[in-house]
Write a structure and sequence with these properties.
The chain is of the alpha/beta class. 33% of the residues lie in helices and 25% in strands. The protein has helices at residues 41-48, 75-82, 100-107, 114-120, 124-136, 152-164, 182-192, 208-214, 236-243; strands at 2-10, 16-25, 30-34, 56-63, 66-69, 85-88, 170-174, 200-204, 217-222, 225-230. Helix 3 (100-107) runs parallel beside helix 6 (152-164) and helix 6 packs parallel to helix 7 (182-192). The longest helix has 13 residues, at 124-136. The chain is globular. Bound molecules: adenosine-5'-triphosphate (ATP) and magnesium ion (MG). Adenosine-5'-triphosphate is lined by residues 11-12, 17, 35, 37-43, 90.
């Protein structure tokens, strides 16, 4: 469904950040991306959804046998493909002064044009879809609350609902449980996991034990390349290699 083919990305200072990153993702998969801070995980997610253009390589979204290249597209065409990719950003930010429902409705990247929402408001169908997205992550009861009054865990669930409102076939989540306590981490991941029935999820994690508990597969990046792609249960020698200076290991 998603094919990432040989993504290479240089930084403005000329440093090669990502080198020939390739992998595929299918509906039903929950892929955990691991790697040291600064290795390029966020940049990789941005390349996948077209927010950043790689120097070479391709990202192809193949839905219903209709493959579409993401990079190289512009304007409306890019927005149309990107609508199929939900994104939860690192440290997801809601518009504090808007209600939860308004955050979901206005955050639907590409689904509703800002101009139209400002001019005409939302249709009943759109409101129902936003409420249903909130229900999927157990926060429908918070629809009328101002975003600034939510707890961190609730905000993160609203950020997921905002992504779901787009009806994505691929959900990218950059550290979806960063800054959450253990209980809220579980709550958020317990809501995320079943969404793989309808989509593929690729999420960045810093805790390998969460990847082991929730993901169906792990991908690790080191020195700009994929050094591990396999079982989410990573051995200590694999982890030492990813985060330290241990010897190279084979993917399981
Ligand atoms: N637009 C940019 N201009 C210059 N450098 C950038 C840019 N975007 C990212 N970088 C650099 O690229 C490197 C990788 O950044 P990235 O945010 O992808 O790391 P990360 O793996 O997500 O780290 P973390 O786990 O801390 O979130 C960092 O050194 C960062 O400073
Ligand atoms: Mg990051």
């Amino acid at each position: 469904m998603l094919a990432v083919k040989g993504i290479t990305k240089k930084l403005p200072d000329g440093r090669l950040l990502l080198r020939e990153i390739s992998f595929e993702a299918k509906k039903g998969e929950f892929i955990g991306i691991l790697g040291e801070s600064g290795v390029g995980k966020t940049v990789l997610l941005r390349c996948i959804n077209g927010l950043t253009t790689p120097d070479s390589g391709e990202v192809i979204l193949n839905e219903d046998g209709n493959p579409q290249k993401i990079n190289g597209k512009k304007g409306q065409e890019l927005r149309r493909i990107r609508r199929r990719i939900g994104m939860i950003f690192q440290g997801s930010i809601l518009v504090k002064r808007l209600s939860v429902l308004e955050n979901v409705l206005t955050g639907g990247l590409g689904r509703i044009s800002t101009m139209r929402s400002l001019l005409y408001g939302f249709t009943d169908k759109e409101v129902q879809a936003a409420l249903s997205a909130l229900e999927k992550v157990g926060v429908k009861h918070l629809a009328g609350r101002r975003a600034e009054t939510l707890s961190g865990g609730e905000m993160q669930r609203v950020a997921i609902a905002r992504a779901l409102f787009q009806e994505p076939c691929l959900l990218l989540a950059d550290e979806p449980v960063a800054n959450l306590d253990p209980k809220n981490t579980e709550v958020v991941l317990d809501y995320l996991k079943p969404l793989t029935k309808e989509m593929a999820i690729i999420a960045v994690f810093h805790a390998p034990e969460l990847v082991s508990r929730y993901c169906t597969r792990a991908i690790a990046i080191k020195d700009g390349t994929v050094v591990y792609d396999g079982s989410p249960h990573l051995s200590s020698s694999v982890l030492e290699y990813i985060y330290g200076t241990g010897p190279a290991v084979k993917s399981a």
